[in-house]
Amino acid sequence: MFTKNSRNRYDKKDSLELGRRAEDSFARLAVKHGFKVTASSEKGNIDEHFDYVIERDGKSHKVDVKSIKRLSRRDSGTQDEQIWIELHGVRAEDKGWLYDGKADLIAFELTQSFRLVDRVELIALVEKLVNFDAKVSSPKDALYKVYSRQSRPDLLTMIKSEDLLQLRHAEWGK
Prior knowledge:
Largest sheet: 6 strands, mixed
Order of helices and strands: HEHEEEHEEHEEEE
Shape: globular
Number of helices: 4
Radius of gyration: 15 Å
CATH class: Alpha Beta
Number of strands: 10
Strand content: 25-35%
Helix content: 10-25%
Distance between the termini: 33 Å
CATH topology: Trna Endonuclease, Chain: A, domain 1
CATH architecture: 3-Layer(aba) Sandwich
């Protein structure tokens, strides 16, 4: 088991730091937007796939923050034109944040903003866009196809960040 602050064995660069920075940035923005922000427990973070509970005007939302990512682990820099979607987690029993997460909202970090979308609406969008029968072995080919890393149970796909604009969304400038 790992904690929110421990690097997993596959993180050879700075994924942990990118994630932490995105989460901190999101929390600061949520406060600026008038939300009370509470960090999830370790169980909430790891098993239920949410980072924060944000509350305002008597309503609360569990939010999973997704940092800006590389297209491939070998890439030197991050990009925000395409976003990774986890269909099944890296642990055999983990069905992943899209289908099994308890988050109400997913906050995708982009270069200039966070784009917040409803997780259930995102499921419908992914199921409309992705060809689940098309399996690829390279992350560079994962756009609208299913990618799995060798000898790992995870299943991932990529969609374009602009695809999220089809959903009800909020855009929080950084």
